[in-house]
Design brief:
Helix 5 crosses helix 6. The protein has 13 helices and 14 strands. It is of the alpha/beta class. It has a domain of about 80 residues: Ubiquitin-like (UB roll), CATH 3.10.20. The longest helix has 22 residues. The relative contact order is 0.12. Strand 12 and strand 13 form a beta hairpin.
């Protein structure tokens, strides 16, 4: 599972990345601070299953606080882009190529409108944040269109050789990890039954936009909500866009995460508030900063939005679920006695067989059936699992 963090340059992408991962990365109020992509691990929450059974989780990765299990996901913070990126302007080709691996992308937007089209600082409300979203989506669609355009002769050769249109396009777009079924659906919906060599510019771009929408979906992180001018733009973004829009203050989340790591406050990602552990250890400036975060972000929006953005991407957009495999269905443990050590992210229609393949190819090969631990019921390999299921895979010896 890889989530891309994308957007115009100098809108807070790297701050969002650092807030979600606690990985130190260079930040600055200027264009193109990020050149090489930053990779790290963030977390999505799932309601704890260990408390349901009166045990305590021992996660291999992430952690559990008794309320939530924090499950790791990979994040990729790529270089910012500008208009014309698909032609190589700025760091465009690099930006787009880095993102081909992501299953879903979070577009970070400066909702306060305080950076212009090129990422230069300007007074708040000087720039329309809706344009930032349009730029990203259009540049990505134009890039996909350019891939198809350059490969038209190859596509024609494959079709002349007997391949279907969707098969030929699937081969060309294989690096984007887009399903063949998705390509077929888009062709049918847009009535593009002629070979791509005969598509006009509008048809090619319409196909690319729809492929992007279905195969590389977006979530909008409306960043800088602590700036007064941002609030009116959040509603407008929600009204104008089809994608989910999440109010975000990446800077507030980063401050809270660092303060918690330093032992100054009690706070975990997604919490609606924090608790100061020892006020005497904080300076007056730090106390003022925390008060401001509480007043302008947490009290008003319910969270900083960073965690909500990740979970919206995984649960609402990709419709993924988290399943817990165990070897001992009585103790909820692995062979070494670790309680609920693993958490596996599966697609909406993920089955027992899919879970087995995620664990290990050898287990998938030898799998006979599964056991639903909650009710001790035997389930087939093609049984579609539910979110928060605990499952034992029975294998042939």
């Amino acid at each position: 599972m890889l989530i891309g963090l994308v957007g115009k340059t100098n809108v807070g992408k790297t701050t969002f990345f650092s807030a979600a991962t606690l990985v130190e990365a260079e930040r600055g109020n200027r264009p193109f601070v990020t050149i090489n992509p930053n990779e790290g691990v963030g977390f999505i929450r799932v309601k704890s299953v260990c408390t349901e059974f009166g045990v305590r989780c021992q996660p291999k990765y992430g952690w559990c606080n008794g309320r939530y299990r924090y499950v790791p996901v990979k994040l990729l913070d790529v270089a910012g882009l500008v208009r014309g990126a698909h032609k190589g302007r700025g760091l465009g080709n690099k930006f787009l190529d880095d993102l081909r691996r992501a299953s879903v992308n979070i577009i970070i937007v400066d909702t306060s409108g305080s950076t212009d089209e090129e990422g230069n600082p300007v007074p708040p409300s000087s720039h329309d944040p809706l344009e930032d979203v349009i730029i990203v989506k259009e540049e990505f669609a134009l890039w996909i269109a350019s891939i198809i355009e350059r490969a038209k002769s190859k596509i024609r050769g494959r079709i002349v050789g007997g391949a279907s249109i969707d098969s030929a396009l699937y081969e060309v777009l294989s690096g984007l990890d887009i399903r063949k079924e998705t390509i077929r659906e888009v062709i049918d919906e847009l009535s593009l039954e002629k070979p791509p060599i005969e598509w006009n510019e509008d048809q090619l771009l319409s196909f690319s936009r729809e492929i992007l929408k279905r195969g590389k979906p977006f979530v909008i992180a409306a960043n800088k909500i602590d700036v007064p001018e941002a609030e009116s733009n959040i509603n407008r973004l929600s009204e104008e866009l089809n994608e989910p829009v999440v109010p975000v203050s990446a800077e507030a989340e980063l401050i809270l995460r660092k303060a918690a790591k330093a032992g100054l406050i009690r706070y975990e990602p997604g919490d609606p508030d924090f608790e100061i552990i020892d006020e005497s250890k904080l300076t007056k400036a730090q106390l003022r900063a925390l008060d401001t975060i509480r007043e302008k972000v947490l009290d008003k929006f319910g969270s900083t939005g960073v965690q909500d953005s990740l979970e919206t991407a995984v649960y609402k957009v990709l419709k993924m679920k988290v399943v817990f495999p165990v070897e001992n269905e009585t103790k909820l443990s692995d062979k070494d006695g670790n309680v609920l050590p693993d958490s596996i992210i599966l697609p909406e229609n993920g089955t027992v067989k899919d879970l087995a393949e995620k664990i290990h190819s050898e287990i998938a090969r030898k799998a006979l059936y599964g056991i639903d631990v909650r009710n001790k019921r035997r389930i087939s390999l093609d049984h579609v699992l539910s979110h928060r299921d605990i499952v034992k895979i029975v294998v042939a010896r």
